[in-house]
User: Fold this.
Amino acid sequence: MSPKPVSTASRVNNPDLDWSQVHETVLMLNLAVAQIEGALNSGDESVNTLADSFTSMAGEVETISAAAKELEQSNEQSTISQSCLAVSEQMRATIVAFQFYDKLTQRLTHLSHSLEALASLVETPENLYNPYAWRGLQEKIKSKYTVESDKAMFEAILNGKSVQTALQISQQASGPDIKNDDVELF
Assistant:
């Protein structure tokens, strides 16, 4: 027996004998997925605009720096060269911030996919009470983690730790300087 389509299922505001907390849970999971996906899409547009702007600015800074090298040695030439160097350093710092945004985006995408998989499992009656299906879901989610701190958090939660404790364990797995936690070029 397949689940009722959303449009004909009993609703919380007008329940009948077919009303189910499972159906309501799936609706809330789907809402969370939609909100995450919407936030990611709007964030991507903004970050793409910023990235394009920084690429253009990097080219302009190179042009200014090259032009400054052609000038006679003077205080102005030195000031221009130093300013170009300072702007280049700030742009490198911004690129690192973009890398953290990329990491955040990857985590939220993973979360979205995990919630979709959970909703699918919960709305399938034969899987809802099947511990092997739940273990499969957990293994699927676990296999997607690439960062040690995320793996540590996952394990802590599955071992019954509180959210607060899991966050502390994750932070410890990140090492002393969380700002340098697995920044990668993508």
